[in-house]
């Protein structure tokens, strides 16, 4: 829960203002009136984004009650989730992408992890990413989110981007209704647990013609494929590392897995992969960040 304190509040403003700012920023959280009313009378909070090291609680001018602290934490989490998972830019809506090379040629690359959340390995990967100060993109399977909701929340709390990888990872042909069930149910659950309203889809097995992608496109999802396949589900750590390094490219999207089986090979290869990519000059971005960078280039060209 330490991640609730990722944002440190600096300027002193009242809770009313904090809540109001949140709502102005487009939050759709339900605020318990009795809680916020009580809080209004008793609490003053410092607001702002600063160092992560200053403990939130130390900068409070009064001791907040527990429900209030939870409310603030929830608002802040929702704000962070929204910032890290912005709406898909128009040029990518209902499109399929494998990578997004930038006109600038900037060496950015997006690490993506499928089939989680998953016990042990999701945690291990979060630890490695955090240690290296990297944000990645996780494509969740809905039923795994249902089974391991705390892990889904943890991924979001760590500030990673989250996408939809269907409810049960099916490969067969789907009617529109069945596809809708696979995709809508997953997106709803992710939203309920994390506040992230994703419109990124990655098809199970990369199958493009079984009705899932077709449905996702009707809902304006971007279909996120990859340009570098680690094949981590089938090969050893050294091989998957070599696969990624051989296929890495500016604007590239790397496919790995944090769930769906024993993914310790991925966990073991990840630190060296990060090392080698950094040595080659790569910066790590999320898929939404990559889309946003391209969108900015497009806007700049228009202007
Ligand atoms: Zn998968």
Stretches where pLDDT is under 50 for at least 5 consecutive residues are 1-59
**How much of the sequence is in beta strands?**
5-15%
Principal-axis shape equals: globular
CATH topology of the largest domain: TIM Barrel
CATH class of the largest domain: Alpha Beta
The number of distinct structural domains comes to 2
Global Rg: 20 Å
Structural class: alpha/beta
- Characterize the largest beta sheet: strand count, sense, and whether it forms a barrel: 6 strands, parallel
> Any guess at the CATH architecture of the largest domain?
Alpha-Beta Barrel
How many alpha or pi helices?
A: 11
Helix content: 40-55%
First-to-last CA distance: 44 Å
Mean pLDDT over the full residue set: 84
Bound molecules: zinc ion
Topology order in helix (H) and strand (E) letters: EHHEHEEHEHHEHEHEEHEHEH
Q: Tell how many strands the DSSP assignment holds.
A: 11
By CATH, the superfamily of the largest domain comes out as Glycoside hydrolase/deacetylase
